[in-house]
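Objective 1.3, modelling of assemblies. Example input:
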Amino acid sequence: MLIAIEGIDGSGKTTLAKELKKWLENEKKKKVLLTAEPFTEEISKLIQEEGWKDPVTLTLLFSADRGVHVNWIMKQNQYDIIVTDRYYYSTIAYQAAMGIDKNWIIEVNKFFPKPELTLLLDIPAEIAITRIKKDDKFNFKEKLSLLQKVRENYLEIAKNENSIKIINSTKTFEEVLSEAKNYVEELIS
Ligand SMILES: Nc1ncnc2c1ncn2[C@@H]1O[C@H](COP(=O)(O)OP(=O)(O)O)[C@@H](O)[C@H]1O
Ligand SMILES: Cc1cn([C@H]2C[C@H](O)[C@@H](COP(=O)(O)OP(=O)(O)O)O2)c(=O)[nH]c1=O
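Predicted structure (tokens):
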């Protein structure tokens, strides 16, 4: 069973993924594999060196990275649940925000398995950016308008896809986690 966690940078994906894993293991006695995209070091390096200059190359690099990731996931037979921090909805939302045709991105990604559940952490970009700043990881000033567009794209995708559940990530982390648990509970029970 594949669960994806999606949302703009700073929306709380990594925090949620870790806590969900703990809960699934400790309370639900499930074997959980936590993974993330971008997945491979080699392609991440290419993305840093080349991709950001060119959204077409970026789309292909993220999708190629996903191919390697999916092949690896397919071999992880000992787990009940695989939780991935980002999946193909990231490419649809981010690279479409950079001007790439959504249908082409969907086409490039059409062979990858669809997650049974996707938790979309929804939050205004202005708030997400303050959370990233708290971590002092990046300077996202110039990213605000891009992230606003990415957020809109995610919400648009979710409108047409029942397996994507939107969680309001401006709430406290306890509330976000509790909502996420309810959706996962529905899926595994
Ligand atoms: N619901 C929340 N309310 C307030 N802060 C949060 C919440 N969820 C996560 N955070 C904090 O926001 C920051 C970014 O979270 P993170 O999980 O790294 O996001 P992402 O993986 O989506 O970039 C971290 O400092 C984290 O502790
Ligand atoms: C997987 C993926 C990530 N990205 C972007 C989102 C992030 O800005 C960046 C790195 O992802 P990530 O390391 O997950 O960043 P964060 O933890 O801040 O969310 O790559 C894409 O643009 N397309 C994709 O397909």
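The two ends are 13 Å apart (CA to CA).
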